[in-house]
What we know:
alpha+beta
Amino acid sequence: MQGRLVTLEWPGDDDWAAIASWLRPGSPAAVLSGDWELLGAAEVEQANRSGRVHHLVIRTKDGTRIGTVSYQRSGRIGGYTVGGAIGSPELWRRGYGAEAVVLLVDYLFHQLDAHRVQVTTAGYNKGIIRLMTKTPFVVEGILRDHCYLDGEYHDAIVWGLLRDEHYASLKPSEDNRVLAVGLEDFVSEDDKVQARAVLAAHLATADRTALTPYLEPDVTTPNAIVPAERGAA
């Protein structure tokens, strides 16, 4: 997945330790997100391979590995929770993390048939809250005393985005305050149309189809259902 500033890639064998370090308790990214995982590289890899969570590596245009985004299933079918972390504070507020999350969200809706995507942010993170207010995400609730920092508990904000809201945000309008990425189709619309045309031509001329008995039912077959004539008793 490629954006203007970053690309998202599936992790390789040398990425698991970096992901674990970004998510460890006390790391700058974990502190500001209000979320952390007490996992080593092997545990992070196992969590991904088991399907419990899916991480992607964020890389800049020159290939530098700078962070991660993740998604996992949540609630009913079609629900996902996403998160992310840029490792070094020196790279914050440059748009890398924002674009990475936008790419991931669009991937979930456009390729995985997501119906709802959820993000939870710490109530003390001014930067991420300001960013979220510039997206189509909707504030859905407050989790009281959900995060702990500097000797006290803090609330967290739950943001949600539905499928129709996402696609509406891709259309140019005066209300769009953050540029939506919008991933290109994996298969072009022209190829999809041609595929249907090839199949239609085959069905019209060939006998090698299991549909023929249904299109031209054999009325001599025992127990065949024959439509009743109008007015029949």
